[in-house]
Amino acid sequence: MYMTVQETAAFLSMPEDQVNRYVLGGRIRAVHDGEQYMINTSQFGTHFQQLEEAKRALEEWRAIPIPEDVDIKDED
């Protein structure tokens, strides 16, 4: 499915100017149909999957308890 820059900006919750910069910079793949850029949404599936995996890994890391302080003074 292809979307316009405006639709993609709403889909990704980011400003249109930023989406345009990403398209022109090659970070988002798009085709130009003579009037506007059309962006294939299938390229974002992997992106959102990686974001979810990163969030899960961060939550797992935050769940690890902080170890007790080692009393260095007792090591004479």
What does this structure look like?
The protein is α+β, with helices and mostly antiparallel strands. It has one domain (2-64). The chain is 50% helix and 13% strand. The chain is built from three helices and three strands. It has a three-stranded antiparallel beta sheet. The longest helix is centred in the C-terminal third of the chain and has 20 residues, at 44-63. The chain starts with a strand and ends in a 13-residue tail after the last helix.
User: What is the chain-wise order of helices and strands?
Assistant: EHHEEH
Helix/strand/pairing class, anyone?
alpha+beta
Number of helices, counting only DSSP H or I runs of 4 residues or more: 3
Q: Tell me, what's the shape? A: elongated
Offer a concise description of the structure:
Keywords: DNA-binding. The chain is of the alpha+beta class.
Task: Give me the secondary-structure topology.
Blueprint: E1 2-4, H1 5-12, H2 16-25, E2 30-32, E3 37-40, H3 44-63
Antiparallel strand pairs: 1-3, 2-3
Helix pairs in contact: 1-2
Tag the structure with descriptive keywords.
alpha+beta; single chain; 50% helix; three-stranded antiparallel beta sheet; DNA-binding; DNA-binding protein; DNA binding
